[in-house]
Amino acid sequence: MGCLSATRVAEIQAQITKLEARLLKLETAYSEAATAIESYKLDTGQSAGSQSAKRRSLDELQEAIDSIESRLEHLRAKLRGTGIINTVLRRK
Predict the structure, then answer these.
(1) What are 2-37's pLDDT values in tens digits?
(2) How far is CA 38 from the centre of its chain?
(3) What's the CA gap between 80 and 83, in Å, rounded?
(4) CB within 8 Å of 56: residues ≥ 6 apart
(5) How far does Cα 73 stand from its chain's mean position?
(6) Which of 31, 40, 41, 84 could cross-link 52 (Cys pair, CB 3.0–4.6 Å)?
(7) Which of 21, 13, 26 is nearest to 63 (CA)?
(8) What are phi and psi for residue 21, nearest 5 degrees?
(9) Nearest-5° Cα angle at 90, 84 to 92
C-alpha cells in the first residue's frame, strides 16, 4: 500500500466497489443487448402518436466496460503500490 494513508486506501476501495457494481450492470446489459432487438416503435393509435425506444449499441456498452476495467486496474495498482512511475532518461 506504499505511502497511502488509511483514509485514502478506504476511499480507493470504496471506488473499486462502486466500479465493480457498475461493471456488473454493464456486462449484464451487454449480454441482454446481444440477443435483444436494438430498437422498436410503438404506435398506440392515440392522438399522441407513436413512441420509439432504442437500446445502447453493443459498441457503446463495450467502450464503457473497457473504460471501467481500465479504471479498476489503475486503482488496484495504486493499492498494490505498482502504479505508473514517471522517469526521465538522460544521456551522458
Answers:
(1) 678 899 999 999 999 999 999 999 999 888 877 766
(2) 21
(3) 8
(4) 29, 33
(5) 12
(6) 41
(7) 26
(8) -65, -40
(9) 150
Q: Which of these, 72, 74, 66, lies nearest to 27 by C-alpha position?
A: 66
C-alpha cell at position 64: 464503457
Q: How many CB atoms lie within 10 A of CB 4?
A: 14
- Reading the block at residue 75, the C-alpha cell is 486503482
The predicted model scores a pTM of: 0.66
Q: What amino acid is encoded at 52 in this protein?
A: S
Rounded to whole angstroms, the Cα distance separating 33 from 47 reads 31
Q: Residue ranges of the alpha helices (H) in the chain?
A: 6-35, 58-80
